[in-house]
Amino acid sequence: MRATGYVRKLDSLGRIVLPKSLRKELNINEGDDIEMFVDDNGNVVLDKYVPRCIFCDVAKEDIINFKGKTVCKDCIVEM
Fold first, then answer.
1. What pTM value is reported for the model?
2. Which residues of 29-45 are buried (b: 16+ CB within 10 A; e: fewer)?
3. CA-angle at 60, arms to 24 and 76, nearest 5°
4. CB 29 within 8 A of CB 23
5. How many whole angstroms separate alpha carbon 64 and alpha carbon 46?
6. Which domains can be identified in the chain, with CATH numbers?
7. What is the pLDDT of residues 4-59, one digit of tens each?
């Protein structure tokens, strides 16, 4: 992980603002879904959400939504 130098306060609703320059660098746009993780050291990690296949757990752009579940084309072919 690299330090960005950005420090932001949490507001009363638990929100933070990601600086525009950071959003541009990470290709995060208004309305994009953001995923939150906690790593092994207890750090909160934010990442742009990319759907994952329920079978292989790989994040891909070619995910198909089938009856509310996300499945990749590779797993569909394998089935």
1. 0.62
2. eeeeeeeeeeeeeeeee
3. 160
4. yes
5. 24
6. 1-48 (2.10.260.10), 51-79 (no CATH)
7. 888 999 999 999 999 999 999 989 999 999 999 999 999 999 888 888 899 998 87
